[in-house]
Amino acid sequence: MIEIRYTAWDGSQKLRLDADKVFEKLAEFLSATDDVRQAMDWMARQGMDFDGSRVAGLEEFLEQLRQEMRQRYREFNLKDALSEMEQRLQEIVERERETIERTRAEHPEDRLDRKLRDLERVPRRLSEAIRKLESHDLEDQQARADFEDLLEEYENIRDLENFRERNQHLFHGPKSLNYQQALELMREMEQMKQLEQDLMSGNFDQVSMEDLQEMLGQQTAQDFQSLRQVMLLLQEGGYMMQRGEHMALSPKGVRRIGQLALRDIYQNLLKDRGGSHQTDHRGITEIRPDETKTYAFGDPLNLNLVATLKHALARRPGVPLRMEPGDFEVYENDYGTSSSTVLCLDMSWSMSWEGRFAAAKKVAMAMETLIRSKFPRDFFSIVGFFTRAVELKLKDLPEASWNMGDPFTNLQDGLRLASELLGRHPSRNQHIIVITDGQPTAYFLNRRLYCEWPLSFGGISMRAAQETLKEVERVTRKGITINTFMLDDSPSLRAFVEKMTQINRGRALYTRPDHLGEYMLVDYLSKRRRKV
What we know:
- By secondary structure, the chain is α/β, with parallel strands linked by helices.
- It contains 18 helices and 16 strands.
- The strands form six sheets. Strands 11-10-9-12-15-16 form a six-stranded mixed β-sheet, with helices on both faces. Strands 1-2 form a two-stranded antiparallel sheet.
- It is elongated and about 150 Å long.
- 30% of the residues are buried.
C-alpha cells in the first residue's frame, strides 16, 4: 500500500526545476524584447511561476528590504546619537580648563595662555574638536587618559556624524537612540544599503547570503537561493554561454528559441486555420502506404495489388481473373516541391515601437526552425535592412536589434541582397518575404547611398520609392515573388505597397505584431504547395 503525505510549503523544500522549463520562461520574456540580456534581467527582477510554485524576483526582495528600512525610519530618531560623546568631550575640556587656570594662577606663563585660548576655539563639530585636541598637550592627567579613550572612538564618531547628517531627516520615529545603539543602526543600515545595491545590480555572486538571511530571515534567503538556482540552470543546461562580460544565447539556445517560437505560432494556427493547406500534382511524389483510393484517370499507377485482386474476385470469383478499371486501387501520394526563401527584416528605428521588432524576429526564428526541421531541402536566409542591408546568420539573430544609429529604411538594398542570395540557390519557387512598418527612405544610385526623409508627416520619399520600385521590377523579371507584411496601416504606406504588389503580383498583408506569425506561416506553407 502506497501512503502519500502532503505538507504545506514552508520554503525548506527544494523547488524541482529543469533547464528546459526555465528556458521556456526566458523565451516568454524574449517575446517582449529583442535583447537577450534585457530578457534575462526582466526574468530575474520580475520572478516567475512554475506549475503553481512562485519563484520570487529581485524586485520582491528589494521591496522586502526597503520595507525593513522604512520600518526603522518610522521607529527611531538620531537626535541624541552623539550626546554621550559630546558630553564626554565637554567634561575633558572643562577639566583641562580648570587645571590650566589653576596652574596659571600659581605660575603665569604665556604657554598656558595660548593653551587656554586654544580651548576656547575648539570646533563645535565633535570629530573636528577631537582632531583639534589631539595636537593639544593636555595638562590634566585624568583629562589626558579620558581623551585617549575618546580618541579610540574617533573613526566611529566621524562615520556616525556623517551618517546622521545624510539621514537624520529620514529617521522620525519616537525612540531616541544612544551612541552604541546608533552605531549598531548605522552598520545595519549600511549593510542594507549595500545589499540593496547588490540586488539592484542583478549580480547574484555579489549578494551576501549571510546579510540577506540576517536582514530578511531564513525564508527569504531560501527564496533567493531558488532564484539563483533558476538563473544558473540557464547556463548549466547549455542554453547560455559567457560572451565577454555578458551572457548570450548558445547555439543550443538559439535552436530552442526557434522551436518554442514555432510551437507558439503553430498552436495559434491550429485554433483558427486547421486543415487549410493546399495540394497540387507537381514535384516529388511520395507514396503513402497507409491510405489508398480507387484509381481515377491520370493517377500514377501505384497499385495496391492485394486490394485490387480482392475487388476483382469479389466481383467475379474464379479463374482466370477478369479485371476492370473499377477494380484498381492505388496508393495515395504526397506531392511536394522545394522552395528558396529570403526573409527581409526591417531593422530601422521605427521597428522599436509597439514591440514590432521583437515580434518580427520571433517569426524569423520560427521560420528558420520550421524550414530546417520540416523542409530540410529548402533554402532559407534572412536579410536585415536599415540604412543599408546585411545578411543575418542564425547565430547572430538573437542578438540583432533595431538600429537607432541608422534610422533610414533601405528596402531597395534589402531586395537587391535577397535577390543575390536567391540567385546562388536556384529553384522554381523563389520568394522574398518582407516585414516592415515603413516606406523606403534610403536607396543606392550608381553605388552611392542617398537618404531622404518624407516630404511631410505621413508623406513619402519620392526618389527612394521610385528606386525601390525599380528594384521590385528587376526582382520580378527573375521570377521571384515578393510577399509584404506591413505592421502599419498609413494611407501613404498602403499606396506604396499596392504599387509593389501590382508590379510583382505577390501578396500584401496588413497585420499587428501579435498576429504576424500566424499569417507568416500560413502564407509560407501554402506557397510551397501552389502550382508552379
